[in-house]
Specification:
Blueprint: E1 2-8, H1 20-37, E2 40-45, E3 53-55, E4 61-63, E5 74-80, H2 83-97, E6 102-105
Antiparallel strand pairs: 1-5, 1-6, 2-5, 3-4
Helix pairs in contact: 1-2
Length: about 110
């Protein structure tokens, strides 16, 4: 089985005032379904209050992270037997979060 990353950038979550409680409830319900199905690996959100740093091979730390689009928002990793099932779970999360989800598959590395 492959592990799939289902994610969204913070800017994608445009939720009308007063709807946040429903989004939280609905998204947690999907996660509980994934746990009950035995496919949940882990999930969470990037803490925007903690700025990124780059750590070099010599241990030197530089503020700011890579010069690329920001890595923020939320993510879920599920272990599933097919891409079709991953699309189904991504659609459930999209409905719950009120925004489209990006779906990626992790490459298999037997050493990790």
């Amino acid at each position: 089985m492959a592990k799939y990353l289902i994610s969204f950038p913070a800017a994608a979550m445009v939720v009308p005032e007063g709807d946040w409680d429903a989004v939280v409830r609905d998204s947690h319900a999907v996660i509980e379904q994934a746990k009950a199905a035995g496919v949940y690996v882990f999930g969470g959100g990037i803490d925007a209050g903690v700025p990124p740093v780059l750590v070099a091979a010599d241990g030197r730390v530089t503020d700011g992270g890579y010069r690329a689009p920001p890595l923020d928002g939320g993510f879920t990793v599920l272990e599933l037997p097919s891409r079709e099932q991953a699309v189904d779970w991504a659609a459930r999360l999209a409905k719950a979060c009120r925004c489209s989800q990006e779906l990626r598959v992790f490459g298999f590395d037997p050493q990790s």
